[in-house]
Amino acid sequence: MTAIAALSAVLSGCSKSPALEEPVRAVKVLTVGLDTFQAESEFAGEVRARVEARLAFRVGGKIITRQAELGQRVKSGQVLAQLDPQDYKLAVDAARSQTTAALTNRDLAAAEFKRYKDLREQSFISAAELERREATLKAAQAQLEQAQSQLTTQSNQAGYAVLLAPVDGVVTAVEAEAGQVVLAGTPVFRIATDGARDATFAVPEDRLAAMLLGLKMRVKVWPQNTELSGVVREVSASADPVTRTFQVKVGLDANQKAPALGATVNVSSAASAGAGLQGKQVIKLPTSALRQEGQGTAVWVLDPASMTLRSQAVQIATADGNEAVVASGLEPGMQVVSAGVHVLSAGQKVTLYQPKSGATPNAPAPAAK
User: Fold this and answer.
1) pLDDT tens by residue, 3-18
2) What is the DSSP annotation of 218-282?
3) Parallel, antiparallel or unpaired: strands 367-368 and 308-320
4) Local structure of residue 19 (DSSP, 8 states)
5) Mean pLDDT within 336-365
6) Architecture per CATH, 25-37+279-368
7) What does the buried/exposed string (b/e) look like for 246-261 if buried means 16 or more CB atoms within 10 Å of the residue's CB?
8) At the topology level of CATH, where does 86-151 sit?
9) Which of 234, 198, 232 is nearest to 215 (CA)?
10) Strand, helix or coil for residue 352
11) Cβ-Cβ contacts under 8 Å for 141 (sequence gap 6 or more)
């Protein structure tokens, strides 16, 4: 009997220990409910001219005078700045002298051709000799035309030494000063042309899809607190390399009094935030309740009878601040886990989380609006 008892003890020691039960997790839940969608996207921006021209000299040289100042209103054709014209005047004089010499040669060749033509009619010279005189005349004519073109070009270059305002507008930037030597094409002024105005602002990537061309926007001018209307007319195709935001331009209604250039504005649109949901009853959840499941979004729904979890796929319509607006998948009255969703599994048994303040276990879960 002693041997049998010892064998039983050995066998019992080799048997597998019972599997540990998974601990019951405490979860925060909320009760799904309906709420009125009131979200509105608002962005800070500024007023700019729809057309802003960067002006530069078409030739290089030293700026001797700058007549326009920052913020000055200018008229079309008004002189803004001038380069030293001396070299261009000398080039014009040289081209004029070349034109005079070419004209003299052409006249001499024409006179000789006329005389040789009369001699050919009297058979005093051969046809070949007349053809040589005709060729000389054509060459002289070509040289004259070349000299005339060169004179016109040099005259234009001299005219380009004066920078004129191409349109009526306001000088918004001065980028060169008198005494500075500039190359052709170097920006000297920036002019905001009179006429249409835009409200420009930057949006993050997650709001870019809502900025549709033609979307109506409200533009509130600060500090006058006046409200204007406009529509989205341009959305940047690429993000700013520093801020990683996208520039949006809202064209202001031409029938309204245009605000001052550079004025600070707040641009908003209910449609940009809710795409037609404004004022409607919707279900909203905190983003902490959402998780990725396959290619879609899902939440954990609590079965109060068994206190277990099941996965429920949902579709998200848009965002309302830190909350997501659920388009489908949930019904009012359902209880959804609101935090710690990534450590849970389907069918897992849970209990309701109780704060340390000592709330009763049967306290109802907060409602999600």
Assistant:
1) 555 545 544 555 555 5
2) EEEETTTTEEEEEEEEEE-SS--TTT--EEEEEEEPTTSPPPPTT-EEEEEEHHHHHTT-TTSEE
3) unpaired
4) P
5) 76
6) Beta Barrel (2.40)
7) bbbbbbbeeeeebbeb
8) Helix Hairpins (1.10.287)
9) 232
10) strand
11) 106, 109
pLDDT band at 227 (very low <50, low <70, confident <90, very high): confident
| Separation CA 55–CA 189 (nearest Å) | 5
State the CATH class of domain 52-84+161-192: mainly beta
Give the tens place of pLDDT for each residue, 275-304: 555 567 788 888 889 998 888 899 999 999
DSSP-derived letter for residue 349 is: B
Assessment of whether the complete model's pTM goes beyond 0.90: no
Helix axes 86-121 and 127-159, enclosed angle (nearest 10)? 160
The number of residues making up the chain comes to 369
Tokens 């607190």 sit at which residue? 225
CA triple 351-352-355, angle to 5 deg: 130
